[in-house]
Every structure is written in C-alpha cells, then in structure tokens.
Amino acid sequence: MKHKYFGDINDYRKYGLLRILSNYGKLKSSICWMLTPDDGSNDRRHLDYLKQPEKWRAFDPVLFDFLHENIEIKKIKDVNVLQRAGIVPAAHYYSSHLPDDATGRKAYFSDYMRYSENMDLIFFDPDNGIEVKSINYGSKDSSKYIYWSELVDAYAKGSSLLTYQHFPRITRSKFIEEKVNDLVEKTGADCVFSFRTPNVLFLLASQKRHRESFIHSSEIIKKVWGDQIICNLHGSIENEPIPINIQVKKVSTSKGNKVIEMTETCDICGCKLNRGTEYAKPTIKGRSHATKHHYVAERFFGRSTSRVKTERDGVFKDCPWGYEKETGTFCYECHEELLHNPVILPDDIQKFNEIVKLRALNEIEKSSSRIKLAGRIQLFREIISIGIRELHDTERKSDCE
What we know:
This protein is α/β, with parallel strands linked by helices. The chain is 36% helix and 13% strand. The chain has helices at residues 9-21, 53-56, 61-73, 80-85, 102-115, 148-156, 172-187, 211-225, 284-287, 332-339, 346-358, 371-400; strands at 29-32, 92-94, 121-124, 129-130, 145-146, 160-166, 191-196, 200-205, 230-235, 247-249, 290-294, 327-331.
C-alpha cells in the first residue's frame, strides 16, 4: 500500500468490503497496510468517481462522504485518517513501513504477529499481491508482495486471512482458480472466498468458526455492491446449506481435500445444463445445452471467435471493465435467444440517440478514429447497468415489504 493511492476507486471498494466482512466491528479485525514509499507518480484518474456522487455514493454513503471530504476538500493522502475516523469499526491498524531486506522483513512480521494476536480477521494489503517467482524473499521490490510463509503463519495462529491481489495479464478466471487452489493447498483452509472487482481481487481464507459470518457478509456484499464486487465461495462445504446467490466452486488440491460437486446451471435462468448431445435442437436437452458467451465481445479487441485467423482493428486496446476474454456459462436459450437478440424499441433508440448527442458521442461523418464508437459502447453498457440495478433494487424492496 502507498499513501498516494489512498481513497482511489479501488480503495473505495476495498474499505467497503472490509466494513462488511468485519460485520461493522463485531469481528476483531487487524489491517496490515504493508506500507511502501510513494514513487512520485500521480495518477488522479482513479479519483474521478468522487466527482460523481449520483453514481457512486449509494454503495456506501458514510464511506463515500468521508473519502470525498478528506480527498476532494482537505486534499489528504494518508491512510492513517481511516484509523482516526473509525471507518472500519474497532479495527486495529499496523502502519509501519515494510522494508525489502530479509532481516527487516522478518522483524516487521514478527512484531505484527504479536500485535495482531487473537484477531478474527487479518487483512494484508501489499502493493501487488502474493509472491511471484521472479522476486525472491528479501530482494529489491519484495516489499510489494506478501509471501506464502507469512500467510501460512498467520492462518495457523487462528485468524481468517484477507489479502489484496493485483491481476496479471492472463485470463482472470484461470488466475483466480489457481490462487484459490494455492491458498487451500498451503493454508489448509477448507473454505475460501474470492471478491473480484473490475480492477483487483481479494482472497479470503476463512477459519471454520467464521464461515457462517462470511457467507452472510457475502450476501450483503452482493446486495449492496452488485457487479462492483463479485463474490464467489470455493471449498468443501458438504451437507451444509449455501445461499442460492452465492456461487460455489470446486477446489482441487494434492492433499485430496473433500470437495462438493455442484450441478452446473445457467448463469441467467438457473436451469440445469446439458453437456451431452442435441446442441441447438428444439428439445429440452438442446434448449438447456451449455454454451459460453464472452462478457465483452472479442471483436472489440480485433479478434473473431468464429474466424480465428481473421484480424481487424479493435475498438479497445484494454477492456474498460476488466473482463477481456472472460466468459459466462449459459443455456442455449438464454445465450442465443436472449443475449444475442435484445429488444430495443423505437422510443428507446430515440432516447439513446439524444443521450449520445448530449455526451458528444455522435458523428456527422466517420473518421479513422473509433474513439466515439468506444464511447457509445461504454454508454450503452452504463445504461444497461443502471437499468438492471434500479429494477433489482425496486424488486428487492418490494419483496421485503
């Protein structure tokens, strides 16, 4: 963690996650910032959300107002103001700087383990995440990582562990699966949660005594944060009821941990999927046949799913939402009939056209640039997201009355 990142959009989601996982102070929590020196760069793009309260404040109004006051008004860039304000209630904070050298690092974590004794939840916040092969323990830039030996030691002392993880440039779902399997393998945790945001990942190795609390917290996170923080539960939870809105993944380890086999279902309608014959046929098996659908179309990046060797100019160099090459699993009906054929009526088109003009994304004549097309795609995604969220909240409110 660096002070310069304090309060950016990733921090907003991170503090919101910590507030809910700690059950607003009911679980004793310890936050190890793993502070490293600022490097002089100053990218304020990730602070733009603070200028859009109509879009972002509703996720956590108390947290948003606190960050807005301290960053936009007071111009503070110091994580220690969180401790003074009690934003994560009853949390203990460890704010010493973490050195690179092995001797200094051992002393740092030895002191922290004494400081965090008897904590329910420990959060490690390294700059980059869990150790990589290219950076040896005690070498230059090793302070940007948490090492497996440190995670294993903390978990063995009885705390549940939450750690920050930066996404490398590989398929994210595969990366999450690998990290979850490693966490299960090395700590012995039988229950791991992943919390995926558009930019970063948080991994939670739960002690058995905390599992019920974290399942409940995950339900709240999904309700409050929606697709800003996507919760998945991984592990062996045989013969225990799991909330229907928590997705459970299978975990494989060399130790042969018992895992549950989950029926594969459509991400939209929830029907049981068929992976046998009769694909696309007008039969129950054909209509329920499993298919994959890219969340963000491959053609936006100059690739074609059906014509693999065909290349064209992409609309985006990097995915604005962090889901390049990522896919969901759907039944044939929901994929081919629903997702590929959205119903957009003339009145919808007219209003969309007006918004396009208001955003200055319209074009009189085409040019070589595709920037405005990229803007219209992002706008259309924004409209879908807002509409789904509004209807979701209305339905949930109605259901509770």
